[in-house]
Amino acid sequence: MKETLLLTKHMRENPEDSHSLKSYEKNGGYESVKKVLKSGTPEEVLQEIKDSNIRGRGGAGFPTGVKWGFLAEDEERYLVINGDESEPGTFKDRILLERDPHQLIEGMIITCFAANISKAFIYIRGEYAKPARRVQSAIEEAYEKGYLGKNIFGSSMNLDIVVHLGAGAYICGEETALLNSLEGRRGEPRLKPPFFPAVKGLYNKPTLVNNVETISSVPWIMSNSGKDYSSLGVEGSTGTRIFSLSGHINNPGNYEIEMGSSFGEFVDTLGKGVKNKAIKAYIPGGASAPWLRGDQLDVKMTIDDVANEGSMLGSGAVVMMDEDTNLVLAAKSLVSFFAHESCGQCTPCREGTTWLENILERVASGRGRLSDIDLLLDVCDNISPGLTWPPKMTTICPLGPSATASIVSLMKDFRSEVEVLLPKKVVIG
Amino acid sequence: MRLFIQCTNRSQQVNYLLSVCKSISCEISNSSDVINSVKNFTGLSNNETDDENFFTYESVECIGACGGAPAIQINYETVEGLTPDKAVDLCKWLKEEEPEIVVADELQDKFGGVKSFDWAIADNNGATSPVPGFQTYDTSKEKK
User: Fold this and answer.
1) CATH architecture of A241-322
2) Does any CB of chain B come closer than 8 Å to the CB of residue A269?
3) In terms of Cα–Cα distance, which of A376, A382, A273, A287 is closest to A330?
4) Residues with pLDDT less than 70, chain A
5) The domain containing residue B89 runs over which residues?
6) Which residue of A18, A391, B25, B74 is 20 to 30 Å from B55, comparing CA positions?
7) What is the pTM of this model?
8) How many Cβ pairs closer than 8 A exist between chain A and B?
């Protein structure tokens, strides 16, 4: 199994200066945007994106071409790049922002051309200070050269890009919460309807919100073609994807591969195997995704295959846990994360995640009660009725229901690990 | 859930903010040992500042350095692949050197280990205060 390098090709081949405009241009950068602005039409760009069948790389996997098509007509529209990558296990946007910011900027110019947008924002999480600095200096370079601002590349197109740094809240990765945060409000998700970003987004104007990786793919698609892109990967999960591999693994890192091979193959070849041990469980798509068992390593890495197993490919964060892992502590770590990051708008999430954290804390420390397993599942059921995947929602955004995923996996597949921590049943008489 | 008032930073401005990650990838890579060693060295518990306003310690959720777990941020500059001993060395070094600008690449060379990915070219930019920000502070220019 080998990597297929589309997005990470430039940074691999030019490690010493891949983030500079000079290096990017020398290696064919800004060629596709020049081509598009000179002889393309917005309709053609949209058609190429639709042909590529690329699906959003942020987590939900919504087809990008369809999303662009939804954008309502208005005299002012915005593009917002979601770089608030905070899903535990994910660090793919970090490499794209830090090592190849010009690729993102080129993708943004093409996107804005296709959607007739003249103001764009890049929202980067507060912890990514170094990537944000790199993006900011890349934008300054582009302005100096006249690649941004008024009459880009001598055409009639105008575009301004603003970098906005978040303050480190996971919830701001949810698109409507991100827009609130960008407007200077509290980062709380908005109710859909009516606040679909494509209709009522930033400042109540139609807004495109796309992930860093999605927009970074656009220059490649335009310099080749949508059909070329869709010929990679498998149907329903076309193109390449950057997977962030971490956990008990010999060779962690970001790997760009075509979707369609199995997790086991991925871990053994590119990850160079798990450290001396067998795999007990793994997370296929970030903290929100239900776990898969170690004997499910032959699952194919596509959006649909992982969904069929009752989990999701999400943000592409693969976390391996070997046989010595204390899964109760792992679940507690995940639940604490959601309890900490809940914005507090909806009661089931605000109260439920805190209760889950408290109960799991006492179970992990050996002070659990016999009834705690049922209690945990009952609280989960109140956040997400039926405990199905994809989860039923009782909240505005999927954060609360996601918090139940790790507990449900723990109880379903690794119940004995919880039971040994609980007191024995005492029968009197 | 955090109340708004809990999220505002009410402590005095400190020199160095130590943020050790405790999320899943770091947790299963024994970040709790790093947390304990940093806590022991500084004598601080979570969200506490020492008397000289030198260190503030906090355990934080994912900082996007999962491939190089366990990881720490000093004034939002990431250092990856720590061990408990290296974390203490790092704190000692900060105490002795008191660098005006915290540069991630410099700290990574001195105290870091496995990285999430190849950082490639060394960066001279860093942070001058424990505030997330993206102003460019180029140390190489100042040295001239």
Assistant:
1) Roll (3.10)
2) no
3) A287
4) 429
5) 12-143
6) B25
7) 0.93
8) 149
CATH of the domain at B120: 3.40.30.10
Q: Residue B22 domain-assigned?
A: yes
At B143 the pLDDT is: 41
- Judged by CB atoms closer than 8 Å, whether chains meet at A329 and B24 is answered as no
Compute the distance between CA of residue A122 and CA of residue A162 in angstroms, rounded to an integer: 6
Q: Which residues of A touch B119 (CB under 8 A)?
A: 98
Range of weakest confidence among A253-262, A300-309, B50-59, B125-134: B125-134
What pLDDT sits at residue A103?
96
ipTM of the prediction: 0.89
- For residue A16, the chain B residue with the least C-alpha distance is B121
Check if CATH label 1.20.1440.230 holds for domain A327-419.
yes
Mean pLDDT of B114-140: 76
Q: Which residue from B4, B22, B134 is facing A129, i.e. has the nearest CB?
A: B134
Q: Does A315 touch chain B (CB under 8 A)?
A: no
Q: Does A190 touch chain B (CB under 8 A)?
A: no
Closest chain B C-alpha to A167 CA, distance in angstroms:
7
Q: Which of A84, A133, A132, A79 is nearest to A110 (CA)?
A: A79
In-domain check, residue B79: yes
Question: How many domains are there within chain B?
Answer: 1
Chain A residue with minimum CA distance to B125: A130
**Is residue B115 assigned to a domain?**
yes
Q: Which of A133, A165, A244, A409 to mutate to test the interface with B (most CBs of B within 10 A)?
A: A133
Which residues contact residue A105 at a Cβ distance below 8 angstroms, ignoring those fewer than 6 apart?
A138, A139, A142, A147, A148, A161
d(Cα A241, Cα B125) in Å, to the nearest integer?
30
Poorest-confidence range of A97-101, A292-296, B12-16, B112-116?
B12-16
The span from the CA of A343 to the CA of A188, in Å, is: 6
What's the Rg (C-alpha) of chain B? Answer: 15
Stated length of chain A: 429
A119-124 and A78-83 beta bridge pairing: parallel
Residue ranges of domains in chain A? 9-230, 241-322, 327-419
Q: Is residue B4 part of a domain?
A: no
Class in CATH terms, A9-230 = alpha beta
